[in-house]
Amino acid sequence: MSTAVARKRSPSVVFPPSGLGPATTVEVSTPSEIQQVLSDAKRYPSPVRPVGSGSSTTRCVTANGGTQLDLSAMNRVLKIDRDKVTVQPGISLTELADILSDEGLELVGGFDLANRTVGGAVSAAGLEASMAGDVGQFASHVVRLKVLSPNGKKFVVSEKTKSLLALMRLSYGLLGVIYEITLRVRPIQGFAVQTAKVSFKDFGKLGSKLLGATAGVKLYLLPFRDRIYLELRRPAAEADPGRKFAWRFKDWAVYSALPEAARSIGKAVPIRQIRYPLIDSLSEVAQSLVNNALVRSGSNSVEQSGRYRLLGSKSRFTYTTWAFPAADFPSTTLAYKLFCKEYYARTGFRCDMPTVGFRLNRDRSALLSPSFDSPMFTLSPLSTQVEGWDDFVLDFADFAAKHRGVPFFNQTRNATPEVVAQHFGTRLAFFDKVRRELDPTDRLVNQFFQSYLPQA
Ligand SMILES: Cc1cc2nc3c(=O)[nH]c(=O)nc-3n(C[C@H](O)[C@H](O)[C@H](O)COP(=O)(O)OP(=O)(O)OC[C@H]3O[C@@H](n4cnc5c(N)ncnc54)[C@H](O)[C@@H]3O)c2cc1C
């Protein structure tokens, strides 16, 4: 077991200031080392917060004055079966996708950041362009978890104990530390990619079609150009599983080259009336050339194993995510366009990158699922600019609250406890009841979660 002060972090995001850091950071490589940490509160002070790749954009992982438990060294694949894989929590989705693809298998789900860890993806809410029949959360593919409770006792939850599994999925390291994960996998399947470009008003007319679409839906919204670029994925048995290079290039263009260009233009062109139209034009070119022309087919396997790998991402951008009920989403997008324009006119700040959206299928496999009650669409404004961002995020949180937005504990900045209570109320109360039984001394609870959990 090694104790250190620095740890690896995803390079592509601007983190919120963490304030007081952890008193100690421990890199563990076996379950018994995790056990030692959990059961020795003198040497390893509370709160103990497990960390995968640390790519969450809230303070869900911070352990102010406590112990940061770095699981990234627990990164082995333990067993591969025909339809299941068993891994340690610190392996990244990319590494796992690579290993599975050698066996002709893939993870279920089409998401962006694949260098997050399996432990993090199972413990925290995610976004993905799920196709019909697939559920909305990566965590729903978990069939068994081995866990160390807050006081260091081992327990196992599996599909035989469905309600316990629903509690453990998306439990944010509050019910224990997950040290082994068995996931459902499937043979590599091709999908066809269809793209389209519409105005916000025409997007509104698509509303009910998108709601019931069998396709996975990903959106890039440019409010100041009145444009929404749609990327639709449909399962296609005959589809070419796609070219790795094309997907890598797309990632690089959208998440690395574009933010880098936006930052450079931001520095070189101080007059915002010239700067932003230039950046918007660049975004449109990126969407038209890369998304619409280059990538016509793919597979989860090709997409996941290519992400952020060879081309990497040195650019820094930040984002916040809210999920909105799918039934109201056409009117929410129109209101969002007006919100962005009004905010810019009032403050001079606007996001310099396209807002990204996903349709999340309804998912009841986890108690704290953000799409527990209905299918949802997410909106994630992205920006490379730090100045003005914090105020924008506050106002966007107000906007989201007015439009029945549901926050993600790991990806939403400035959600108020009232909004959290409104959406997760009874479910969060039940979750916390179980949590208090497992963790009566709040060994795993940091200030961030204290502010959201119901008061005893
Ligand atoms: C550029 C960028 C793009 C992104 N794109 C996407 C995307 O497309 N889709 C998406 O869903 N998310 C995306 N995210 C968000 C992020 O990847 C998710 O929040 C992810 O779930 C975090 O994984 P992680 O390994 O970094 O977990 P961490 O941030 O390290 O941890 C997340 C939570 O899980 C807990 N945890 C971690 N490991 C364990 C464990 N073994 N046992 C118990 N608890 C544990 C932590 O305590 C914390 O509460 C993106 C982030 C960035 C920066």
Explain what this protein looks like in three dimensions:
With 456 residues, the chain is α+β, with helices and mostly antiparallel strands. It has 3 domains: 2-70, Uridine Diphospho-n-acetylenolpyruvylglucosamine Reductase, domain 2 (2-Layer Sandwich), CATH 3.30.43.10; 77-187, Uridine Diphospho-n-acetylenolpyruvylglucosamine Reductase, domain 3 (2-Layer Sandwich); 190-404, FAD-linked oxidases, C-terminal domain (Vanillyl-alcohol Oxidase, Chain A, domain 3), CATH 3.40.462. 35% of the residues lie in helices and 21% in strands. It has helices spanning 31-39, 93-102, 118-123, 162-168, 200-211, 244-268, 272-294, 300-306, 329-347, 389-402, 417-438, 447-450; strands at 2-4, 24-27, 48-51, 67-70, 77-80, 84-87, 105-106, 142-148, 154-158, 177-184, 186-187, 190-198, 216-222, 227-235, 297-299, 318-319, 322-325, 355-360, 376-379, 382-383, 406-407. The chain has an 8-stranded antiparallel β-sheet, with helices on both faces. Helix 5 packs antiparallel against helix 9 (329-347), helix 6 (244-268) packs antiparallel against helix 7 and helix 6 (244-268) crosses helix 8. The longest helix is centred in the middle third of the chain and has 25 residues, at 244-268. It is globular and about 60 Å long. Bound molecules: flavin-adenine dinucleotide. Flavin-adenine dinucleotide is lined by residues 10, 12-13, 49-56, 60-61, 71, 89, 111-113, 116-117, 119-121, 123-124, 126-127, 172-173, 177-178, 410-411.
